[in-house]
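Reference record
================
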Amino acid sequence: MSYKSDIEIARDAQKKPIQEIGAKIGISNDDLLPYGHDKAKVSQRFINSVQDREDGKLILVTAINPTPAGEGKTTTTVGLGDGLNRIGKNAMICIREASLGPNFGMKGGAAGGGYAQVVPMEEMNLHFTGDFHAITSAHSLLSAMIDNHIYWGNECEIDVRRVAWRRVVDMNDRALRQITASLGGVSNGFPRETGFDITVASEVMAILCLANDLKDLEQRLGGIIVAYRRDRTPVYCRDIKAEGAMTVLLKDAMQPNLVQTLENNPAFVHGGPFANIAHGCNSVIATKTALKVADYVVTEAGFGADLGAEKFMNIKCRKAGIAPSAVVVVATVRAMKMNGGIAKADLGAENVDAVNKGCANLGRHIENVKSFGVPVVVAINHFVTDTEAEVQAVKDYCGSHGVEAVLSRHWELGSEGSADLAQKVVELADSGKANFSPIYPDAMPLFEKIETIAKRIYRADEVLADQKIRNQLKEWEEAGYGNLPVCMAKTQYSFTTDPNRRGAPVGHSVPVREVRLSAGAGFIVVVCGEIMTMPGLPRTPAAETIRLNADGQIEGLF
């Protein structure tokens, strides 16, 4: 049986005017800034007007470690949101925006799939409402103002060898990881080494996603450490006087974007930090606004639960003062077989033994999520090649871990296929069993926070860090930053720092290569193993097959 492609389904969508979608959650036309007919930004005036309302229940969707077999976390998030509305609940979803880098690299689009999608799909995966361009521009403005400050006399006495602020671009470009800037003579400034990260790893992105309003945004931007003096004292963005102009560039980007699912249910799509090199959650302002206008809010955290969910719990919830009422861990039979040692080409054949073997990865994630004190349900994201015996094997395994696994067919059937999952999620969320708590306190020393995540979440035996890194963490503690959470930059493909080690390995080490202080965002970035904050393109990037067809439609993006 043949199925329509994701883009074919999206193009057939019967979209409603965005004003009708806004009306569903009480947003008047006066509080929407339309970008065409099918997307709009929500005004700060509306956001302010709902702050006295009671919060709805927050549902987090996370997953096992990603594999080439596919997991479908965003697809499940969208399907669950539609399923909740189908069973009569007032629900909406909150997801991240897509980065251009992986769209043209290897990962592809990020708007769901099958009959569980958010639309307009093409615009969302390209320029959308311009938020990422605004973030890149604000970041670049600060970069230019730092070098300009040095050029015109360096009043702040910046040590040009210790400029901490790198540049960004929203594209996978490994050639920019390490560069030399300001070559070409006196008129071009003082030559120095620098480099580029991808925009989704920018501290500006993290700040926009964690700020509560424009005032908070400007204050956080001002707190960015951009460089150090010869005496090692920090120079802040506010010392360069850049935070005001940066806030102006981000004024519209700060407003959540309202779009719709294929079933015309409301969705906020806002912010987009990566989960392997950043904190991996959509914006606080979108999530908190959704909680004021819906009874159930379904959101996701990037990649597997060892990265996205851990950061959602330890960073976003801690900073925003929110807590999930239930967590959905997404798994697929295909991914279980791949974790069980089966090659991608052989995943179509039934293999219950491989499913059972691969379930160890799922079990580890279940245990980790439970450790935060929240109830868990497993969503088996159905593929048409799954057999009853394989699905039952996953259900039996989950049952042995004290959680229920629900087969969800939202990709194929939309909300009709996710209604059972929605019922289970409501049961858990309304049970009052959630007793959320981060896994480490603010007062714990920074290195112990790193060790706590490595040992409790990754099941590592030790963290390897040289004395220079340990001394740097101690210096930050002495400077008053010891209460910050840590953001682990690590491969998404494994609990270890080796992307090829699948399953649930134990007895490994976590090598820390570098630590970065994101003082404005309010966390410490811990770069582990060979992870890069500027990805590269694969041997055959998706961009090679992306083009316009004879009808002017985009081909190859999905």
Notes: The chain has 20 helices and 25 strands. The chain has a mean pLDDT of 95. The first strand starts at residue 32 and ends at 34. The longest helix spans residues 131-151.
